[in-house]
User: What shape does this take?
Amino acid sequence: MTRIIVVDSCAEFNEEMLLQNNTKRVPFFIDVNGKYLMADPEMDIDSLINDLKETKEVTKSAAPTPDSFYEAGKGYDEVFYVTISSKLSTTYNNAYIAKTMLEEDNPNVKVHVFDSKSAACGETLLVEMIQKGIKENETFEKIVSDVEVKISDIQTVFVLEDISTLVKNGRVSKIKGFLASKLSIFPISVGVDGEIDVRHQARGVKNALIKTVDTISEVSNLFSDKTLYITHVKNEDRAKILKDMALVKYDFKDVKIFEATGLSTIYANKNGLIMAF
Assistant: This one.
């Protein structure tokens, strides 16, 4: 029996995950500063950040195609698709089209599409959970059931220093963006059923990190059986500070830090931090 996990390229991988041969990533595409780029693991994030700074145009992203999901899952007996929140992208729909294509090819194939209702390291968390289930030879049905239960409980918290992309694409007003930049205001947001909810605003890096850690307790009160996943956009030092602060206040069983992919970078921008648990 052959099994494969297929996840969009918003998910981050560490070295341990890269060594697994049961996982593939399919790319987003990014239209920025006159360039159309494939947001794959080889993307130059520093160059992307420079393009984000230079462009005055709206930076756009395109979801992985149904064909890319289909080709990645073709020929396997069991396929687990993991996507960014369906509220943020058409990626889930495209993966579901691929599911129907695989089932038309082979009525005996087992395929499930997970809507992570998260992004970045929230997807990573789910991929690691599926990898563990495969390693322990759990059934397809048990893996699906366990992961869907986790999705219903997954929490995402993030803090942004640079909201220029959100201003350019109209998700934040130009006035708010100007004030946030001039006054060093950091919006702190949470994921609510796959959508973004701005909970707090803090002035300055120190206050923003404190408020971000405090926000964790607003969305959950059980931590001892959970791993905290942190994504950073080119600021590992700040991610480590956030990790240390979180471990002082909460009893997470572990903390894992990842560097942001291209897709996370265009929305979180440099120094952005995303947490999932």
